[in-house]
Amino acid sequence: MYGKIYVTICFLSYLTIQCKQAHSQQLSSAVKQFVAINSDTIALIHTTIIDGTGGPAKNDQAIIIIKGRIAKTGSTKNITVPSSANVLDCTGKTVIPGMIMMHEHLFYGESLPPYYLGVEMPISFPRLYLAGGATTIRTTGSVEPQTDLNLKKAIDKGQMVGPDIDVTGPYIERELLPIPEVQFIRNPEEAAQEVNYWIARGITSFKVYMNITKDDLKTVVSIAHQHGLKVTGHLCSLTYREAAALGIDNLEHGFIPASDFVTDKKENVCALWSVTPSLNKLDVSSPAMKDLMKFLIEKKVTITSTLPVFEPNSGREMIPGGGESALAPQIKEAVEKNYNAAGKDSSDAALFKKEMAWEKQFVEMGGRLMAGIDPTGAGRTIPGYADRHVLELLVEAGFSLPMAVKICSLNAAEYLGRDKEIGSIEEGKRADLVLIDGDIQKDIRALRNTETVFKNGIGYDSKKIFESVKGMVGLH
Ligand SMILES: [Zn+2]
C-alpha cells in the first residue's frame, strides 16, 4: 500500500529521480563524486580541536560521529571507539566547526562601467563555499532570489553540493545605483509588497540597502519580525543609530558604512562621498564611536565583519586567500587590470586597520560580531578561498584564534537561533566540521589545507571540489 502511494506521488511529479531521493535521502551522483567519507559511524582520533565556543584549543582529541551527529568528543585516550567505526587518524591535523558565514552571495560582482553587475553563479559558488569550510551561509542580498531558493532546495535534497542556506530576499533599495539587477521600491508600500511576496516563497531573511528611508526600514522590520525573520542592512541614507532605534537586527561591513559621523548629513539621504572622509578623521579610540557601539549593544544589534572585500591593494594578495585559478581567464584579466590600475592608496590601508581595531573594540565592549566575505567589490573576493581567509584576517585584527573561530561559527549560529543544532563541536550537535591538514595554532596559513568538510556527518573532499570549478567564476 505504501508502495502504491509512493509510485502515485512519483508519477504525479513526473520526476521519478527526485522522488526516489526524497524517499530514501540518497545523494545524487553529482554529489557522490565529491564524497570522501560516508559511514554511519566515523571516529576522528588524535586531532587538535578548536571547538567554536571560544575556549582554548585542545590537543589529542577524538570525535565520534554517529548518523550525522557528534555522539562523543573528548581526549582520545578516554574515548572508546566503536568497532564499527571508520577510523581516521588525524595526527598533526586540526578540526574546527563548520563555518557559518553571514555575508555571502550567490552572485559575482562585476564592474563594467558605468554599470555594476550581479552575475548569478549557480554552479561554482555553492561548491566553493562548502569546499572552503562554510557549511552554512546567509546570502545577504540576492539578485535572483528564485535561483537562490532553487539552489537551496537542490542542496537540501542531496542533488547538489553546497552549504545550508539562509536565503535573503532581494536588496530592498530605492532607485539610484547603476545596478540593473536591483528591483527598486518607490515607497514603503512597495517595500511591504516585496517582503510579503518573498516570505510566501520561502525567503528567510532581508537586507535593506544604501538609499532607503526611515519609513521603508520601519515597514520591513515590522513585517519581518511578525514572521520571526531578521533584517540586516548595508546602510548609508540612514545612520547606524537611526536604524538601531528602528529595530534593525544586524549591520553589514563593520563600521565602514556608518554615516553617523558625517557632520552635515541630511535625513534619509546618502552622502556617500562624505562617509569615508568622516571615518578617516575619526580617531581609532574616538569616544563618539564608543558611544555608538554602546548604543548598538544596548539595542542588541549584531555586526557583520566583511574584511576580505576591503583588503587594500598594497602588500596584499590580489585574490584574498588565493583562488586566482577559480576565475575564468577573461574575468581574471579584467580583475588584474583594475587591481594594477587602482594604485597603492595608503588611506585605504589605514581605514582597513582602523576597521579591524573597531571590530575588536566592539567585541571587547560585549557586542556580537559575525563574519562574511562579500564576493562583490572589485571582484577580488572569491567564495571558499576568502571564507577560510577570514580567520587569518580576524587573527590579524587581534582576536585569538579560538575567538576568530567563534565569530565564524557559534556567534552566527546564535544570531540565526540555530545554536542548539550547529556552531560548535559539542555532543548532540550536527557533525558539521572542517578537517584541516596542519596545526593552525602554529601556522595560521595551514587553514588553506582544508582536507575534508563534513556536513551532516558526510565528508566532502575539499580539494576535489575546488578543482571541479577552476576557471568557472565569472561565467556560471
Ligand atoms: Zn554584499
What is the SS-derived class? alpha/beta
The overall strand count is 19
Q: Averaging pLDDT over every residue, what do you get?
A: 93
Count, helices: 16
Question: What compounds sit in this structure?
Answer: zinc ion
Q: So what's the overall shape? A: globular
What would you report as the Rg, rounded to the nearest angstrom?
22 Å
Oligomer, anyone?
single chain
Main sheet overview: 9 strands, mixed
Indicate the low-confidence ranges by residue numbers.
1-24
Please report the distance between the alpha carbons of the first and last residues.
44 Å
The amount of helix comes to: 25-40%
Strand content bin: 15-25%
Keywords:
476 residues, binds zinc ion, five-stranded parallel sheet
Structure description:
With 476 residues, the chain is α/β, with parallel strands linked by helices. Helices cover 34% and strands 19% of the residues. The chain has 16 helices and 19 strands. Helix 1 (2-13) packs across helix 2, helix 4 packs antiparallel against helix 16 and helix 6 runs parallel beside helix 7 (214-226). The longest helix is centred in the last third of the chain and has 19 residues, at 346-364. The model is unreliable at 1-24 (pLDDT under 50). Bound molecules: zinc ion (ZN).
